[in-house]
Amino acid sequence: MNILVCIKQVPDTETKIVPNQDSNFIETNSIKWIMNPYDEFAVEQALQVKAANPGSSVTVIRVGKVHDTEALRTALAMGADEAILVEAEDNLDSYMTAKALKGSIDKSGKSADLIFTGKQAIDDDCLQVPQLLAQMMGIPSVSVVVGFEQSEGKLVLKREVEGGALEVYEAESPVLVACNKGLNTPRYASLPGIMKAKRKPLAKYSLSDVGVQAEDRRVHYSNFHLPPEKPPGKTFDASDESKELEVVQQVVNLLRNEAKVI
Amino acid sequence: MAKILVLTETSGNNVKPVTLEILGKLNGQDIEVASLGELSSEAIEQLAKHGASKVHTLRGENLSVYSPEGYSQAYSGFLKSNSYDYVFAGATSQGKDLIPRLAGHFDAGMASEVTNFVIENDEFHGTRPLFAGKCLAKVEIKGPKPHFVTVRPNSLGLPEAPAPNSGEKSTVEVNPGTIRAFVKEVIKGASEKLDLTEANIIVSGGRAMKNSENFKILDELAEVLGATVGASRAAVDSGYAPHNMQVGQTGKTVSPSLYIACGISGAIQHLAGMRTSKVIVAINTDPDAPIFTKADYGIVGDLFKIIPLLTEEFKKTLS
Fold it and tell me: CA B241 to CA B233: how far, in whole Å?
């Protein structure tokens, strides 16, 4: 079984985001780059499927800029077999990214029996690439997946929707699965894994290699700015037990009569 | 005037509030609404009252339950036999999954989860948060039409004076095509409460809750307020609450009118997910906790004492 995993490299969640000088993206110098957290669940699930289906291979694909760290190496160190990097700027839109992924899969000549992605990238938060890629590939997709079972050629996938309800999907390969936290516990890369990863194949393509042009951009961003700071609020000290009731009454009163939210 | 289709979802007999928020904001445009499946007469009335000139209900086989393939095929067929400039939908669980796939049918661009927008000279200009709200940007769409937009629930607000229209009803037969990944069962969530992303009031617990048992006091407070309970990543990672309750950059981004943060210190990735809440109350023993910099009303104190008192006071006030 050919298993593909699409991953993205994003700023660490603790990063303080600052717009760049032209306000058309963020300042990317001195950012710590990590594998998009949801993609770790995708890599892990791919490795579990590989283990359950002897003879399978896992290929990780990333579209993006080369930074100091390389999320593809992390995935290889976790146990993926090979990697494809499509070099591009960090600010591609979802349509270009999906098209580049599709182009790189076509170019690699690999069949896509299963494609895993994270449910969203935590940088642009668009939640478009998994569904767009599946549509471009002509295969079904299930997103926000928290349960994955494989039995007798059938897949049972649990998708989380509002209020913690689950839609239970039945599907057959090929299908794209966009993974959510809760699906599994991603493994850490072992030291031998990290050593081995250095020798695993990593193919590099350019955007034009995979058929993506500047005209493919659909979404244009400008005026990146920080959200307005709130004026300082009121703080009440109820660390002294005798003050507790008074403070609570005051706050409830303010919520009702000043903020008018209850 | 731009010709716009708004895709709606229902909850019981009513349309989801986000549809009405969108309709209100589109006041002045040529607006039609489409839904998969029958709409109640109340729902059609609500849509007409909020400016829908036409309400299309789409009918076809295998469409009683959502599937990305079936729903996108069905809507795609309908859109191809009409010519809309823009298609809007709420950024609900379904909207977030369906609209990108539907946009893919047209090789069209999509703006995800905008929190505000205007349509000027038939052109859409939106604002959307990125990096879980640490940053905002202006967004525009180019390329083949229709252009697709999802709107984050609770961000536009309901219109104060909606402009009514005729809400003329039509039924359209659609073909969902082959559905290869289909829902064979829906397992209900533990809570019948509104989802965090749609909730008007959220009571959220952090690591200081100490264990999952203690979340009961948040449930009691939530019960009185009609609120939904959330949790910080620290609480989720410690196993006190399931991931579907997580608020923050690797959980849900929320914007309720009232957010009560209990024992949450306010890590940057949590603040990113809840900073657009209209009013924030924070309860923490540490007066220097970063959450207080975002709070409208901060209470420095022991949450295990404060929360039961809050529950009692709210009970009195709301009765």
Answer: 9
Above pLDDT 70, what percent of chain A? 100
A262 contacts on B by Cβ (under 8 Å): 201, 225, 258, 314, 317-318
What ranges do the domains of chain A cover? 2-216, 230-262
Give Cα B179 to chain centroid, integer Å: 26
* pLDDT of A24 higher than 70: yes
Q: How confident is the model at residue B191 (pLDDT cuts 50, 70, 90)?
A: low
Q: Looking at the predicted structure, is the pLDDT value of residue B148 above 70?
A: yes
Predicted ipTM beyond 0.85: yes
Q: b/e string for B174-200 if b means 16 or more Cβ within 10 A?
A: bebeebbbbbeeeeebebebbbbbbbb
Give the closest of B132, B187, B242 to A125, CB-based: B132
From CA B135, how far away is CA A225, in angstroms rounded? 6
pLDDT digits (tens, 9 = 90+) for B227-269: 999 999 999 999 999 999 999 999 999 989 999 999 999 999 9
Residue B83 burial (CB count, 10 A): 9
Per residue in A83-103, pLDDT (tens digit) is 999 999 989 999 999 999 999
Give chain B positions within 8 Å (CB) of A149.
none
Each residue's pLDDT tens digit, A235-247? 999 999 999 999 9
Residues in chain B with CB shorter than 8 Å from the CB of A126 are 100, 110, 112-113
Q: Which residues contact A231 (CB under 8 A, 6 or more apart)?
A: none
Q: Could you report the per-residue pLDDT of A122-157, keeping only the tens digit for each?
A: 999 999 999 999 999 999 999 999 999 998 889 999
Domains of chain B: residue spans and CATH? 3-173 (3.40.50.620), 201-318 (3.40.50.1220)
Q: Per residue in B109-119, is it b (16+ CB within 10 Å) or e — as a string?
A: bbbbbbbebeb
Q: Which residues contact A9 (CB under 8 A, 6 or more apart)?
A: A33, A34, A35, A36, A62, A64, A65, A67, A69, A70, A71
Q: Which fold has domain A2-216?
A: Rossmann fold (3.40.50)
* Model confidence at A162: pLDDT above 90: no
**Interface test mutation site (partner A, options B198, B259, B279, B318, max chain A beta carbons within 10 A):** B279
Mean pLDDT of B40-45: 96
Residues 6+ apart with CB under 8 A from B316: none
Is pLDDT of B206 > 70?
yes
Q: What are the two backbone dihedrals, phi and then psi, of residue A13, each rounded to the nearest 5 degrees?
A: -65, -20
B303-318 and B215-225 helices, crossing angle to 10°: 20
- Which of A158, A147, A146 has the alpha carbon at shortest distance from B185? A158
Is the pLDDT at B65 greater than 80? The verdict is: yes
Torsion, Cα of B300, B296, A163, B198 (10° steps): 180
- Tell me which residue of B165, B313, B143, B249 sits closest to A93, measured CA to CA: B143
CB A7 within 8 A of CB A73: no
Two tokens, residue A175: 């299908």
Inter-chain CB proximity A128 and B275 less than 8 Å:
no
